[in-house]
Amino acid sequence: MHAEVHGHALVVFGALLILSIPLLLVSVFIAASRTHRKNLAEWRQLPTFDEYLAQNPDCKTDQGPPACNQCHATGLLNRGLSSPDSKQRILTCDSCHAPLFRAES
For residues 46 and 102, is the Cβ–Cβ distance under 8 A? Predict the structure, then answer.
């Protein structure tokens, strides 16, 4: 009798474990989708390169990247929105890390 109850409990536990895996995967997918949509909305709010220079004419340099409108440094970090290979790019100041403008590759 005891072995039969123990075996039944293992079957129930196994079934719950198997059913919880798809639920976990769906939850992770939903969370990742929400994060990507939020990041994409924030990316779209950044100016393009031309808009950035139009809004910040004093940041234009003779050569190289434009200066940061916050700290006036000229180094840029070019990072992907969702991964290093992402086509949507965010250019941030290498010094103060302020997001400056967006680009697409």
Answer: yes
Q: Rounded to an integer, what distance in angstroms lies between the CA atom of residue 94 and that of residue 97?
A: 6
Distances (CA, A) of 1 to 5, 11, 13, 59, 85: 6, 15, 18, 81, 59
Residue 40's pLDDT is 85
User: Where is 91: in which H helix or E strand?
Assistant: strand 88-93
pLDDT tens per residue across span 34-49: 887 888 899 999 999 9
Give the pTM: 0.69
Burial class (CB in 10 A: 0-12, 13-18, 19+), 85: exposed
> Using CA atoms, how far apart are residues 6 and 46, in angstroms rounded to an integer?
60
